[in-house]
Q: What sequence folds into this?
């Protein structure tokens, strides 16, 4: 028995996909299939590498482990269904499936926002207060922090899902997007979204604003500390510790803010698709590359793991 939207006869949606140009469907299918394979292999490899190497069992890599897990999960929530739009005449998703995809997408994307801010705080403690790092970032501290990250993700996803449940969707169930996202679904609502839009702006503002403020404050203090380091080698090492994280943060928060914090009237849906594409498909693919290619510890761990495997 199919689940029906509250106060609505809509039982399914049709996802329009990324483009209607037929000549681009197959090339785009293979392009994004390649992106997804790199995302899966990259993130699962990083998870395995951190799990197998004892010298990577530090708070920084504990949070990186969870970042890779989140990237893998929310890319998997979105990409396989998007790939269907390139090879099928109609990419149909049930109402229940659409709401499920929306919930898990929001859960993982909000969790990523907060875990990136926690990683910035970890870098701050590493550089500015190294003598108390072990006590400040002990397992007794890190585990509750991680739990808080996932609780925030769950709470924000539930808030958006509850607001979506009050909407009645019109008979025209064609969603102009490659996934079930908040703003495209608002376009298909028969009832007013006067409550939903302020909630989106406030909740997403918190999801982006609080982590961004934490990150900026952490890096302001880090920069102040780095400027007081006398040796060039010490400064270079400190900058190297933070550079990968700064790149990941800029890509993720920049594309999210562009998508959600501008009025929909000023953001054509095609640009919204590109922005969504960037932080749902491209960023999860790039993160393991950024953190592995620019990280000496990960490179060393990879060489040791490969040498052990070839020796055995």
A:
């Amino acid at each position: 028995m199919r689940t029906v939207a509250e106060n609505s006869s809509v039982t399914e949606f049709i996802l329009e996909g990324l483009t209607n140009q037929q000549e681009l469907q197959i090339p785009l299918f293979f392009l994004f299939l390649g992106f997804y394979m790199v995302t899966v292999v990259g993130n699962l490899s990083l998870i395995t590498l951190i799990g197998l190497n004892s010298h990577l069992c530090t708070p920084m890599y504990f949070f990186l482990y969870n970042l890779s897990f989140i990237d893998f999960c929310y890319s998997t929530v979105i990409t396989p269904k998007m790939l269907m739009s390139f090879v099928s005449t109609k990419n149909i998703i049930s109402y229940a499936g659409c709401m499920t995809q929306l919930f898990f997408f929001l859960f993982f994307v909000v969790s990523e926002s907060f875990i990136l801010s926690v990683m910035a705080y970890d870098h701050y403690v590493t550089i500015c207060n190294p003598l108390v790092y072990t006590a400040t970032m002990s397992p007794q501290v890190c585990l509750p922090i991680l739990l808080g990250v996932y609780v925030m993700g769950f709470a924000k996803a539930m808030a958006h899902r509850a607001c979506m449940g009050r909407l009645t969707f019109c008979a025209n169930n064609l969603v102009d997007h490659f996934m079930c996202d908040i703003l495209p679904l608002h376009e298909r609502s028969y009832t007013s979204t006067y409550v939903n839009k302020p909630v989106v702006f406030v909740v997403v503002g918190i999801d982006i604003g609080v982590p961004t403020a934490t990150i900026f404050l952490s890096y302001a203090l880090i920069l102040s500390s780095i400027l007081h380091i006398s040796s060039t080698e010490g400064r270079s090492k400190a900058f190297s510790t933070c550079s990968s994280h700064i790149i990941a943060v800029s890509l993720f928060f920049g594309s999210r803010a562009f998508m959600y914090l501008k009025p929909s009237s000023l953001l054509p849906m095609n640009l919204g698709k590109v922005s969504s594409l960037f932080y749902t498909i491209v960023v999860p693919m790039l993160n393991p590359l950024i953190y592995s290619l620019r990280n000496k510890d990960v490179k060393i761990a990879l060489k040791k793991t490969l040498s052990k495997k070839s020796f055995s």
